[in-house]
Specification:
Largest sheet: 4 strands, mixed
Bound molecules: zinc ion
Strand order of the largest sheet: 1-2-4-3
Number of helices: 12
Helix content: 40-55%
Shape: globular
Radius of gyration: 20 Å
Low-confidence stretches: none
Number of strands: 10
Order of helices and strands: HHEHEHEEHEEHHEEEEHHHHH
Structural class: alpha+beta
Number of domains: 2
Mean pLDDT: 86
């Protein structure tokens, strides 16, 4: 049991969570940690990629020594992994490329070299590690046989509810896109595939700044930096709800001075979350913060599309 959890458990106790509840959470977390350590390939094999992603997140979000553990699951073991992971009582989506599990302060990313280039894999690591940077104050809920633990995150994103994902995913998506922009041209295979694909989907390729090339997605125009290159899809350049939230988040940062800085502060300081809410309401009118924060991803990309449109239409 590391220091991180000792602190959180004492917080739980001071919040009035019963000893039995705390004991259950402890056992649950212990089993999860043991499972990850024995089941997955640890970060050693992918040390270079993990180190790059980790340093990037530390620099961008002003964190020293991000102590989150990283586990990589080879794609062919995903199904088996998920089945056993859920048997332990943890939650994870079927189609995500990775996730952050605050209960065990760990990031899990699937390694799918046949689908994604190395730089895309690293950008996914960046996305998940970004989630790991919020101050994790665990809140315990007993439900059936499970002990669910909720965390306060940038926008109070709550597990088992659709509320609060916009800012949380927005920040993670924003960093994911930024990492790709900064490192994409160094991955030669990615770069060639990306450029070829851009030329296939639009004639208006900005050859100097290809990531700024605008892609038409439905009735929406979005810069190519918020797309993900997935070899399994046709066309291979697609966007995801997470990256759309990132695009919307970056629009806010461009419009509101100190928005990004306040969002970063909100990782550890809950007062900054109120400040963010005020900034959004001042910009777009009363109620806009709650409107945006109700946009989650339970409806697939619909909510993220609406978030992006809402902000884009109000961008001068
Ligand atoms: Zn995410």
């Amino acid at each position: 049991m590391d220091h991180f959890f000792e602190t959180r458990f004492s917080e739980m106790k001071s919040d009035g969570v019963s000893d039995v509840g705390v004991k259950r959470a402890e056992t649950f977390i212990h089993d999860g940690e043991k499972f990850l350590e024995t089941y997955t390939i640890t970060e050693t094999f992918f040390e270079k990629s993990v180190q790059k992603a980790r340093s990037f997140v530390e620099d961008e979000l002003d964190v020293e020594n991000l102590d989150t553990k990283v586990f990589i699951v080879p794609e062919e073991r995903r199904k088996d992994f998920l089945q056993q992971w859920r048997q332990l009582g943890f939650i994870a989506g079927d189609n995500d490329n990775g996730f952050y599990e605050p209960l065990v302060n760990s990031v899990v990313v699937y390694h799918q070299p046949e689908r994604f280039h190395e730089v895309t894999f690293e950008a996914t690591l960046v996305h998940e590690l970004a989630h790991a940077t919020s101050k994790k104050r665990l809140r315990l809920t007993e439900s059936n046989n499970h002990t669910l633990v909720h965390t306060d995150r940038i926008g109070f994103a709550l597990i088992a509810s659709n509320f609060g994902y916009f800012l949380e995913e927005g920040l993670a998506g924003s960093l994911q896109a930024k990492y790709l922009q900064l490192n994409g041209s160094e991955d030669q295979e990615f770069w060639e595939d990306f450029m070829n694909s851009l030329r296939t989907v639009t004639k208006l390729v900005d050859e100097q700044r290809p990531f700024n090339t605008v892609l038409q997605i439905g009735d929406l125009k979005i810069p190519a930096s918020y797309s993900i290159f997935d070899r399994n899809d046709t066309p291979p350049l697609l966007t995801t709800p997470y990256l759309l939230f990132g695009a919307a988040f970056d629009l806010l940062c461009q419009q509101i001075p100190s928005f990004r800085e306040t969002a970063i502060n909100a990782r550890k300081d809950h007062k900054s979350i109120s400040a963010l809410a005020q900034m959004i309401n001042n910009q777009f009118g009363k109620g806009s913060y709650v409107y945006l924060q109700k946009k989650g991803y339970y409806n697939g990309p619909t909510d993220a599309l609406e978030t992006y449109k809402y902000i884009l239409e109000r961008t001068k």
